[in-house]
Amino acid sequence: MDLEVLRSFRAVAEGVTVTEAAADAHITQPALSRALRRLESEVGAELFQRVGRVLRLTPAGRVFKEYVDSVLDGYDRGRRAVAEIVDPDTGVVSLAFLHTLGTWLVPRLVTGFRQRFAAVRFELHQADENGLAQHLLDATADLIITGKDPHHPLITWRRLLVEPLWLAVPARHRLAQRRRVRLAEVAAEQFIVLKPGYGLRSVTESLCRQAGFAPLVGFEGEEVETLRGLVAAGLGVSLIPAAPDAAAAPETNPDLPIRYLVLTDVRAARDIGIASLTSRTLPPAARRFVDHALHTTAAVKEK
Fold first, then answer.
1. Do the domains 162-270 and 3-84 match in fold?
2. Where are the domains of the chain?
3. Could you tell me the CA-to-CA distances from 238 to 68, 172, 216, 233 in Å, in that order?
4. Residue 283 DSSP code
5. Residue 59 phi, psi dihedral angles, 5° rounding
């Protein structure tokens, strides 16, 4: 069984046309069609069915694809590991991370790492908390940077830092002139939050419970910047993360009239950590990135 045929099978299974897959494999379309038929003969079942002008996986094809993905991913990881042994200053770091960390922490870590190891490439993925653990379990990422310990028996998590959270209110809010408030003081107000599944959503709900109430959700978004914009528009309040090395509350953008308040009745912060599969030996580049992340965030905490 030819690995290139398996790659073409996967491409077609994921929606690429046979013509496009053949071009990517540098063979003719009839040659690829014959190769896919031979593959079906080897497997002993039809893998595709034609729906109009498009090929769709049969039930047998869907089952087979799961194993093809595992074979190809394992082969590619093996090649990568050997290449990094031959030349340890190269390699790929496959990293998945929370959406909210894509605005400051991940760029900072990646930039600092590439200053030392310029030949290393990054494969980056964004996901919510639930999706991050699955990236590890599915072997689509070597590492994840997440907002809490997944508490999964197959995953090892290490804390990088504690990220402060601030109560964001509109500039004309009744509490806007104060610097410190209790979260309970906004119990009756609408909260602008991320959708369920995002780490910041679960943290917000937990902190509100600690303060003695359930948040009244006015809007569910997918990006922190959306939350900021809607708070600025006066549509509610929100718990917003801030970089841990900020000496005080984040500066107010004159184009985004928000005030950031310190909470006194709850521990307004969340853990940020890096995790990998416990049973898997990380490639050299990924191990170096873990060391870099721990060293960089330790330096921030010491300031």
1. no
2. 3-84, 91-160+271-302, 162-270
3. 44, 15, 11, 12
4. P
5. -55, -40
Closest by CA position to 237, among listed 255, 260, 253 = 260
Phi, psi (deg, nearest 5) at residue 170: -60, 155
What's the pLDDT tens digit per position in 146-194? Answer: 988 888 999 999 999 998 999 999 999 999 999 999 999 999 999 999 9
Rounded to whole angstroms, the Cα distance separating 71 from 78 reads 11
The pTM (predicted TM-score) of the whole model is 0.67
| Cα 211 to Cα 233: distance, rounded to the nearest angstrom | 25
CATH of domain 162-270: 3.40.190.10
Its sign, for the CA torsion 106, 206, 193, 253, is negative
CA atoms within 13 A of residue 53's CA, in its CB half-sphere: 3
Tokens linked to 29: 């379309």
Sign of CA dihedral 250, 262, 234, 222: positive
Number of neighbouring beta carbons within 10 Å of residue 136: 25
Count of C-beta atoms within a 10 Å radius of residue 295: 10
